[in-house]
């Protein structure tokens, strides 16, 4: 984990850093894939590599999604564990993706629905082409309430940054 | 019954209603589930969303490509690589999930996706190795072509999804309309069921009321007399039983009343008149009783028998006075629907004497007093006394001992002589029945004869005395006659004539020596039949005697209705003869008439010489009584017959 000194919200720097990582200059799993900013411990920007994220915790969800055929198997870290890790104290999380998509996830979702920040799909790390490297996944099959646009829209793929608001 | 039919038809409606209700509910749930799946189906919004996302990414890729082709800068190359990967990812995701499903449904969708992938894939080479400036325009056209293919695919799929969603919405709308109709139907059926339940409830209540009314009616019938509307015996017994249970009892008075002359009205004027008379009598009694300040109950308990129960708190009030008022009220003619009738009333009454007394036996006490009242005359009121009960027990004891006594010959005759009133010569003996019971002691004929008449034992008893008397008389040396009394009941049964001839045959007594004594009462019930029997008896040679003349109806007409051999004037004339001149005239007249008819006259109850002389002067032929001696047992008789000379000497 690299604690950046850059001002929160300056995610362009993150992108630049990320672009460097996919050029292969850094070993697999060593490049920064996620930046967390906003109301977190220290108030700066927290940067995470895949290994950092894997060190925080491991959870999995087997579920059907509107974007896959049949039931698929996700592995990653629980968003709640991650936010706890950075001591995030906001009401909402603004989750942004590489494709410029972003969605707001209420912090209350984290404990109530236990969404996962998935890294692996069916045992393989997800590439950008496979909606990777990070994908917010709710346990859709476990709770029929989750089968709605509300939660589908919160299921951000190609996640690159989270701002705790 | 009608209400039962209505009930069962309403049950059918109820069951039908519940069936309709249930089916409608099931249909409703079915539509609900179907709507849910329709809504799921309508979620193809995601296709729209994913589609537009892809189209934006394709545009971004196009612009990144343009920049990179112009600058060939490393940063732009990286940016292009990212956008390329993102767009590639998008096309990958379009092959799967709901969007993949939509594409498959779009006509030519698979082919378009394959085209887009192929066109995008062909751009990869230009990213890795930038084209020379001369080819840039051609590469830009290639990029535009690939982006166009993505746009086309996104657009087609978007449109298809929107149409599908619109169709699903239409279907949902239709189902909602149907659900609405079903719900309306459910509401109507529910309301009808509710109304039906109210109606059924009401009809149940009506049925229950009717059943109650019927029950009340039958209860009334069970407790009341139909003719008079008065209570019946069951009600009286219930009432008295209830009174007996009371701790603080009032003074309970019971009057038993019997209508005198009712039978005559019924016989002469028919049952309609009889019922009218009963009704009028009932009203009269009720009116009398209603004037009292007490709780009262008037009941009809038999043909012409009534019971009145009074709960009296006034200790000064006189039950006896009330009973007599009631008798007085009945002395006036009664106006009925069918005319005026004269009805008397006999009353027996009884009342409770202490708090602890059981009231139920008051009815029996009053009945006992009533029996006493009726046996001693009409229109009388008699209070219950314990002696009445003792008498009743005595009657019951006598009654139960009687049959055995007749069988065992415990009842036997004694003989009282009768004499020539002038000479004193003994002319014969009257056989009188005597009974001395081992435990009850001597029982007089005035006690056991009426009892034997009611039980029918008089038939055997009469035959027994007749046989005994005839056998006895047959043994006498002197040809004295013997008199035997016959009861009315013996005349009512066949076989009397046979009994007499049997007795004569067994004893070989000359028929002329047997006298058969009857009272005028035998002529009252069935005169024609009785007279023919008397004639038959007279034909056998026996002599027929009219006994106890002067009591009862004492009609002179009885004297001429049959050729009596002898007339016996009752002892009551002896007791009053000296006092009333008129009585002397009557006796003289009877003697004259009898003489003219060829009958001899005997005076009974002579006790003194003065009496003998007096009635001798009136013209009586024979005399009987203690003056001549008391009735004697068999063993004393022969001497008596022989002592005729002695008796003559006394006179």
TrEMBL record, chain A:
Lineage: Bacteria, Pseudomonadati, Pseudomonadota, Alphaproteobacteria, Hyphomicrobiales
Protein name as annotated: Oxidoreductase molybdopterin-binding domain-containing protein
Matching Gene3D superfamilies: Oxidoreductase, molybdopterin-binding domain
InterPro entries reported for this sequence: OxRdtase_Mopterin-bd_sf (IPR036374)
From TrEMBL, chain B:
Segment forming the signal sequence: none
Domain EAL intervals: 395-645
Sorted UniProt keywords: Membrane, Transmembrane, Transmembrane helix
Domain of life per record: Bacteria
CDD domains reported in the protein's UniProt record: EAL, GGDEF
Transmembrane among keywords: yes
Transmembrane parts of this sequence: 12-32
Domain GGDEF: 250-386
NCBIfam families reported in the protein's UniProt record: GGDEF (TIGR00254)
Protein name: Diguanylate cyclase (GGDEF) domain-containing protein
Source organism: Roseibium denhamense
């Amino acid at each position: 984990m690299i604690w950046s000194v850059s001002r929160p919200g300056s995610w362009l720097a993150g992108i630049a850093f990320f672009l460097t990582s996919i050029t292969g200059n850094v070993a697999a799993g060593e490049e920064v894939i996620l930046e967390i900013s906003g109301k977190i411990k220290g108030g700066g920007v927290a940067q995470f590599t895949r290994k950092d994220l894997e060190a925080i915790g491991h959870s999995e969800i087997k579920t059907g999604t509107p974007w896959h055929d049949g039931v698929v198997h996700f592995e990653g870290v629980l968003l709640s564990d991650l936010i706890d890790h950075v001591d995030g104290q906001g009401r909402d999380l603004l989750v942004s993706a590489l494709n410029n998509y972003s969605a707001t996830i209420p912090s209350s979702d984290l404990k109530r629905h236990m969404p996962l920040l998935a890294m692996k799909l069916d045992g393989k790390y997800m590439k950008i082409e496979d909606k990777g490297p990070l994908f917010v996944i709710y346990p859709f099959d476990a709770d029929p309430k989750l089968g709605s646009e509300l939660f589908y829209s919160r299921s951000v793929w190609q996640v690159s940054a989270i701002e705790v608001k | 019954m009608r209400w039962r039919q209505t009930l069962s038809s309403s049950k059918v409606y109820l069951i039908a209603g519940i069936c309709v209700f249930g089916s409608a509910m099931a249909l409703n749930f079915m539509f609900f589930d179907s709507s849910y799946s329709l809504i799921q189906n309508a979620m193809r919004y995601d296709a729209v969303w994913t589609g537009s996302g892809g189209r934006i990414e394709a545009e971004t890729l196009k612009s990144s490509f343009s920049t990179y082709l112009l600058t060939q800068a490393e940063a732009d190359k990286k940016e292009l690589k990212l956008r390329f990967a993102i767009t590639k990812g998008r096309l990958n995701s379009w092959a799967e999930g709901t969007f993949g499903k939509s594409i498959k449904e779009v006509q030519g969708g698979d082919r378009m996706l394959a085209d887009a992938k192929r066109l995008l894939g062909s751009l990869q080479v230009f990213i890795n190795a930038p084209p020379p400036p001369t080819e840039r325009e051609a590469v830009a056209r290639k990029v535009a072509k690939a982006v166009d293919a993505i746009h086309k695919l996104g657009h087609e799929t978007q449109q298809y999804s929107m149409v599908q969603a619109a169709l699903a919405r239409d279907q949902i709308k239709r189902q909602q309309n149907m659900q609405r109709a079903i719900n309306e139907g459910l509401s109507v059926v529910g309301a009808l069921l509710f109304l039906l339940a109210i109606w059924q409830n009401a009809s149940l209540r009506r049925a229950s009321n009717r059943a109650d009314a019927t029950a009340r009616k039958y209860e009334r019938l069970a407790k009341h007399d139909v003719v008079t509307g008065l209570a019946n015996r069951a009600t009286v017994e219930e009432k008295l039983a209830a009174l007996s249970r009371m701790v603080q009892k009032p003074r309970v008075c019971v009057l038993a009343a019997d209508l005198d002359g009712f039978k005559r009205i019924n016989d002469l004027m028919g049952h309609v008149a009889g019922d009218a008379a009963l009704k009028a009598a009932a009203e009269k009694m009720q009116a009398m009783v209603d004037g009292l300040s007490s709780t009262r109950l008037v009941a009809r308990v038999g043909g012409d028998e009534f019971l009145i129960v009074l709960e009296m708190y006034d200790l000064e009030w006189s039950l006896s006075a009330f009973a007599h008022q009631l008798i007085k009220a009945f002395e006036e003619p009664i106006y009925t629907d069918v005319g005026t009738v004269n009805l008397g009333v006999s009353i027996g009454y009884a009342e409770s004497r202490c708090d602890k007394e059981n009231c139920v036996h008051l009815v029996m006490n009053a009945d006992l007093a009533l029996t006493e009242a009726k046996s001693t005359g009409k229109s009388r009121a008699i209070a219950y006394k314990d002696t009445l009960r003792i008498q009743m027990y005595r009657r019951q004891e006598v009654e139960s001992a009687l049959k055995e006594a007749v069988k065992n010959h415990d009842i036997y005759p004694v003989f009282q002589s009768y004499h020539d009133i002038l000479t004193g010569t003994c002319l014969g003996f009257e056989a009188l029945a005597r009974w001395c019971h081992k435990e009850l002691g001597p029982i007089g004929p005035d006690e056991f004869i009426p009892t034997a008449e009611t039980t029918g034992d008089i038939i055997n008893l009469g035959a027994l005395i007749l046989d005994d008397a005839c056998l006895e008389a047959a043994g006498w040396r002197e040809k004295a006659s013997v008199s035997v009394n016959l009861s009315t009941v013996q005349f009512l049964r066949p076989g009397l004539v046979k009994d007499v001839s049997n007795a004569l045959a067994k004893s070989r007594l000359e028929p002329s020596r047997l006298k058969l004594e009857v009272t005028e009462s035998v002529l009252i019930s069935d005169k024609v039949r009785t007279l023919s029997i008397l004639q038959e008896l007279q034909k056998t040679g026996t002599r027929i005697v009219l006994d106890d003349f002067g009591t009862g109806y004492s009609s002179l007409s009885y004297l001429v209705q049959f050729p009596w051999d002898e007339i016996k004037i009752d002892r009551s004339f002896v007791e009053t003869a000296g006092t009333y001149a008129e009585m002397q005239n009557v006796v003289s007249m009877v003697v004259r008439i009898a003489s003219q008819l060829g009958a001899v006259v005997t005076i009974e109850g002579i006790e003194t010489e003065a009496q003998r002389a007096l009635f001798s002067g009136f013209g009586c032929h024979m005399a009987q009584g203690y003056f001549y001696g008391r009735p004697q047992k068999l063993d004393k008789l022969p001497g008596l017959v022989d002592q005729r000379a002695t008796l003559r000497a006394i006179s």
